[in-house]
Design a protein that fits this description.
With 443 residues, this protein is α/β, with parallel strands linked by helices. The longest helix has 26 residues, at 292-317. It has a domain at 4-232: Amidase signature (AS) domain (Amidase signature (AS) enzymes, Alpha-Beta Complex). The two termini are 26 Å apart. Helices cover 43% and strands 13% of the residues. The relative contact order is 0.13. The chain contains 15 helices and eleven strands.
């Protein structure tokens, strides 16, 4: 029983299915560990113990009578605090939303519950999801599993910490510019960024609706595939081929994403590429200068949408915000409509060009982040450093959002260094198969 909190989600679910794990006891084990954990209040904004126990009791009864809803029926997971939960506060890491209690669950949470997922609680996050660092002095800054003095990555910061510290079997987060993939990379997890529009956003507190996506943070690719399926209400995709990476063709993106890499990141990336070649993969260099246009427009695209969503509330209550995040929102206040629309049209044109250029590869590779997790204290005391590190942290992952891609971040074996596989839009099932094969090659 003591090992349950370190097991993969599917292993727990299969144990329930075989009658080796009692869903009630499993949830109690997680709730007890959360309650006793010294970092609990930095990871969970709210623990939903009553709901978890009720859901676990129902899962245990379904297992007893042979009516399980999925392989994950009875598995306890955490939810980022921007997914609405009926009757339970959902505040998106912001004092401006204190006391906000939705009347209904987010649609993806309803989907997950229908597949038997047990909701352990709501995890801390970057304020209104507008930072890739995970620093939030307004509510809490969760720890990084590899360095508790460093930030964990954001904005799904508590989501990653809940899994990395064994306080959830898996977590559900959101990704607008890297918010699932960055904390997954920095906490040595697998993170899936879905295509915009692939999973429903009903009941998800928005940041920039044109880029917002939902995705899981897990211990391995099989869990990510199963969680993705549960959120979508479908059966999980087939695992990777028995033949592994032989015959797979990857593009190594050279434009922008390899600039100014931290030495540990650069070394880990070269080691990973060598392993993939040894496993039979072909890796070709991919230069794509057209990417510089949308990357240069990113400030306009993101801040204009974010300000349109939150500007009125910030004008009213912005003094309650963390100043660095408020300033980022405010950058969108003066963006002209014509400037924004031209940037959108340029992005669409480059997306089409990207699709043509990458049609012959299984995935486009790059380091998930160019940097390692920075220290929280310096970020709090050095405003220029906060801005530069936040933009640097999100640089590589933002490619996938701007190009409208699906993406998976995998751990590399080097602490806090992730490998990012970018796949075609709406190609999650295929990308997860390739990611599973890549995961095995890196094991």
């Amino acid at each position: 029983m003591s090992d349950w909190t370190e097991m993969n989600a599917l292993a727990l679910g299969d144990g329930i299915g075989r009658g080796e794990i009692d869903a009630d006891k499993l949830t109690e084990t997680f709730l007890e560990k959360i309650d006793e954990h010294p970092l609990r209040d930095r990871i969970y904004a709210r623990v939903t113990a009553d709901r978890a126990r009720a859901e676990a009791k129902a899962a245990a009864e379904r297992a007893r009578i042979g009516r399980r809803r999925s392989r994950l029926d009875g598995v306890p997971v955490s939810w980022k605090d921007l997914f609405d939960t009926a009757g339970i506060a959902t505040e998106a890491g912001s004092a401006m939303l204190a006391g906000r209690v939705p009347s209904a669950d987010a649609r993806v949470l309803r989907n997950g519950a229908a597949m038997g997922l047990v909701c352990l609680g709501k995890t801390h996050m970057s304020e209104l999801a507008f930072s890739g660092l995970g620093l939030n002095p307004v509510t809490a800054t969760p720890p990084c599993v590899n360095d508790q003095a460093a930030v964990p990555g954001g904005s799904s910061s508590g989501a990653a910490a809940s899994v990395a510290f064994g306080l959830a079997a898996a977590a559900i987060g959101s990704d607008t510019g890297g918010s699932v993939r960055v904390p997954s990379a920095w906490n040595d997890l697998v993170g899936l960024k879905t295509t915009s529009g692939r999973l429903p956003l009903e009941g998800v507190v928005p940041l920039a609706k044109g880029f917002d996506t939902v995705g899981p943070l897990c211990r391995d690719v099989a869990d990510a595939a199963a969680l993705f399926a549960a959120l979508d209400g479908v059966q999980p995709p087939v695992p990777g081929r028995a033949g592994g990476l032989s015959g797979r063709r990857f593009a190594r993106l050279r434009t922008i994403v390899e600039d100014d890499l931290s030495p540990a990141i650069a070394e880990a990336y070269e080691t990973v590429l060598a392993k993939l070649r040894a496993a039979g993969a072909e890796i070709v260099d991919f230069d794509f200068p057209a990417l510089e246009g949308p990357m240069g427009d990113a400030g306009v695209l993101y801040t204009a949408e974010a300000w349109a969503e939150w500007g009125a509330l910030i004008d009213e209550k912005g003094d309650l915000m963390f100043g660095a995040v408020r300033s980022r929102f405010a950058a969108g206040k003066e963006v002209a409509a014509a400037t924004f629309l031209r940037a959108v049209e340029r992005m669409k044109a480059v997306r089409a060009e990207w699709a043509r250029a990458t049609a012959g590869v299984d995935a486009v590779l790059c380091p998930t982040t160019p940097n390692l997790p920075p220290e929280a204290e310096r970020l709090m005391t050095d405003g220029e450093y906060y801005v530069s590190e936040n933009l640097r942290t999100l640089r590589n992952t933002r490619v996938g959002n701007l190009m409208g891609l699906a993406g998976v971040s995998l751990p590399t074996g080097t602490p806090s260094a992730g490998l990012l596989l970018n796949g075609a839009p709406w190609g999650e099932s295929r990308l997860l198969r390739v990611a599973a094969e890549t995961e095995r090659a890196l094991a």
